[in-house]
Write a structure and sequence with these properties.
Mean pLDDT: 75
Distance between the termini: 51 Å
Low-confidence stretches: 1-16, 199-206, 216-230
Helix content: 40-55%
Number of helices: 12
Number of strands: 2
Length: about 230
């Protein structure tokens, strides 16, 4: 994989674009990634990923894709509602958020989009690898960066509370509700239990003083974060 140079002027153009463009990008990447907007902002990669996608696909083609994707989201549909080239761009965006790299597109999509760049996988930036969402999905950390801290190898990572999308929808009492991308119209974000939201659970709405110690966590008399919260 190679690190591409910014040759299309996206960095210079970014200063002249409205601030809400980035918010719009993150909002519509939420249903693509499955992560909350808070987590996408926290990576610090949103502007880089938006510029990377534009540079890879081309301004005109990315604008068409983005309009099609926003319309699909507004109708409660997912990437499957897009045509093949746009579906490939959606897949590439997901790949970019999770790994920090832009993938090789399907040859048919590459030809249809008439891309002016080589159809090869490339890393958006060295820091993008570190901020990949893939590490957060299993509470891990990128090899060689962001070490979790001394002794954490002895602490068992929290297990997921659901094993499938159907299980998640059942936990949220949405089993009988028609599926809608991102659950935007089905349940308010604040109503989703913290343990069902991607990311490190102990960082959400729990004061540090309320987190039980490793020894207490293994005992039957351990105080839960909810009980310890004043």
């Amino acid at each position: 994989m190679t690190v591409p140079a910014a040759a299309d002027g996206t960095a210079d153009r970014a200063a002249d674009e409205p601030a809400d463009e980035l918010a719009d990008f993150i909002t519509h990447c939420v249903p693509l990634t499955g992560f909350a907007a808070f987590d996408l902002y926290a990576t610090g990669m949103a502007r880089l990923y938006l510029d990377t996608a534009r540079g890879q696909v081309g301004d005109a083609q990315f604008t068409k894709f983005w309009a099609a994707w926003k319309e699909a989201v507004a109708q409660g549909k997912g990437p499957q509602a897009l045509d093949l080239p746009h579906r490939e761009v959606a897949r590439a965006l997901i790949y970019l958020w999770y790994t920090g790299a832009w993938p090789r597109l399907a040859p048919v999509a590459h030809a249809t989009l008439r891309r002016e760049v080589a159809n090869t996988e490339s890393v958006a930036s060295p820091s993008a690898y570190v901020e990949g969402l893939v590490w957060r999905t299993f509470h891990g950390h990128p090899a060689g960066a962001k070490p979790p801290g001394f002794g954490t190898w002895a602490v068992k990572p929290p297990a997921p509370t659901w094993q499938s999308l159907d299980g998640l929808r059942t936990d949220l009492d949405l089993a009988d509700v028609p599926y809608r991308t991102g659950l935007a119209a089905e349940v308010a974000p604040d109503a989703i239990p913290d343990e069902l939201i991607p990311g490190h659970r102990l960082s959400r709405h729990i004061p540090p003083s309320a987190v039980p110690t490793a020894a207490a966590a293994g005992s039957e008399a351990a105080t839960t974060p909810e009980e310890a919260t004043p």
